[in-house]
Design a protein that fits this description.
The protein has about 450 residues and is α+β, with helices and mostly antiparallel strands. It is built from eleven helices and 24 strands. It has two domains: about 260 residues, Aminopeptidase; about 170 residues, Alpha-Beta Plaits (2-Layer Sandwich), CATH 3.30.70.360.
């Protein structure tokens, strides 16, 4: 059948899409593992149930995992299944002072919707969902089943996908709308770890909110604040005096592009070293990292042609009465040997009395450019956008494409469009999201026929 009426049909569902997204943004679905009655916290569970309720209203068959790890919504018939993986959990809002609007209230200004999750990943996931709804309204017959799988633990440990893959049917192929167009065919290995050592100082610190976000602030409330301020001035580092503490300022970005951010924790440790403080973590950062997002002093020039340089981000620091701990996120090139990278880091850390403790690891992925999935998605993207220049790309991002074989990340951010995930004032241009809806609708049509 023809998709000549697709654009008008997408326009018909657009306002319902915006309303559904508004309802999901209003749920602050940040992980909370202290709520024992829920897998990842009450708010994430509410977001999952809301997403499934929306799907049911749209005419999908739905399923809620009894343990609350995931849910899915399905349409169509056939033995084969095309999967679309999205996640409903979000990273913390961070400093509310840096938001121009409330992070968990969808606000539309000048054609832009602001709110945590608009870009990562509630907005793109619902865009794909309502794209399929438009196909349903057009009377499209799906010769394969289309299953939307809603995850709840993407920003942390992917326990949702582990459980799904253990007990559920795995799609033949599919995509996750959680990255950039045209598509991502290779993703670096993602390693998250702690470097830990006994605290033998009087220093106490606690800063950073997530492994995978470059920290935009680092707080210090100890002694010698006047000297610290002078050192920060001398180093040219931005800071604020807030009551009884100094807040070193950075720039938050996703850890996959750590070189585009400014790491406030590293800057604080550099300034503390300058005024005479010493500790295991202070010495490690000052000797081996400082402002280098690639940690070349530890790993050398670790990069490859497919996926680029190794990335190194100190996402959190905790110096308590008993222990010093750095929480680090690394993106490892596709062809690099993970065991060798770990050995280099562990050996370097050991010299400072710090022990390597692995927190999580996600393998790299690589789908050849001549694969049916790649060729089909690229064809649709090029037909809709007219962009014949952009090529399939490799990424340091960790998307759900890693969770299953024959999956890639596909949108919803266009080339040259601002990436605001994990940042204050996260937002999405609604006209661009509408264009993504058309791409997703045509892609699902092609993959199911």
């Amino acid at each position: 059948m023809s998709l000549d009426n697709l654009i008008p049909e997408l326009r018909k569902v657009e306002s319902d899409f915006h309303q559904a997204l508004t309802e999901l943004i209003a749920i602050p679905s940040v992980i909370d593992e202290n709520e024992r009655d829920f897998a990842f916290g009450k708010q994430i569970d509410l977001a999952l149930k809301k997403a499934l309720e929306i799907c049911q209203q749209l005419g999908f068959r739905t399923y809620y995992d009894p343990k609350g790890y995931y849910g899915y919504a399905e349409i169509g018939e056939g033995e084969e299944m095309v999967g679309i993986l999205g996640h409903l959990d979000v990273v913390p809002a961070g400093s509310l002072d840096e938001w121009q609007t409330s992070p968990f209230e969808a606000v539309i200004k000048d054609g832009i919707m602001y709110g945590r999750g608009t870009q990562d990943d509630k907005g793109p996931t619902l865009a794909a969902l309502f794209a399929v709804k438009a196909l349903m309204n057009l009377g499209v017959t799906f010769n394969k089943r289309v299953r939307f799988i809603f995850g709840t633990d993407e920003e942390t440990l992917w326990r949702d996908m582990k459980r799904y893959c253990e007990i559920e049917e795995i799609p033949t192929m599919g995509f996750t709308p959680d990255s950039t167009f045209p598509l991502v065919y290779a993703e670096k290995g993602l390693l998250q770890l702690h470097l830990q050592g006994k605290n033998e100082t009087s220093l106490r610190l606690q800063s950073g909110s997530a492994f995978n976000a470059v920290p935009d602030s680092a707080h210090y409330s100890g002694e010698k604040q006047t000297e610290l301020a002078a050192a920060l001035d001398e180093l040219g580092f931005s800071y604020e005096q807030k009551g009884q503490e100094i807040v070193v300022l950075g720039k938050a970005v996703h850890a996959q592009v750590t070189e585009e951010g400014i790491n406030a924790i590293n800057r604080l440790l550099m300034a503390l070293k300058k005024i005479g403080f010493t500790s295991k973590t202070i010495e490690f950062i000052n000797d081996l990292v400082q402002k280098d997002p690639f940690a070349v002093k530890i790993f050398g020039e670790c990069e490859d042609e497919v996926s680029g340089k190794l990335k190194f981000n100190v996402g959190k620091i905790a110096i308590t009465d008993e222990m010093e701990q750095l929480s680090i996120d690394m993106r490892i090139p596709v062809t690099a040997n993970k065991d060798e990278v770990v050995r280099q880091l562990a050996d370097a850390a050991k010299k400072y009395g710090l022990e390597y403790k692995e927190f999580d690891f996600l393998r790299s992925i690589y789908v050849p450019k001549d694969h049916f999935l790649i060729k089909t998605l690229m064809k649709v993207y090029q037909e809709v956008t007219g962009d014949l220049v952009s090529e399939p790309i490799s990424s340091g991002g960790a998307t759900y494409a890693r969770a299953m074989e024959n999956f890639v990340a596909f949108g919803a951010i266009f080339p040259n469009q601002a990436k605001t995930e994990h940042q204050p004032n996260e937002h999405v241009e609604l006209k661009e999201l509408f264009r993504a809806m058309e791409i997703y609708a045509r892609a699902v049509y092609e993959l199911t026929h």
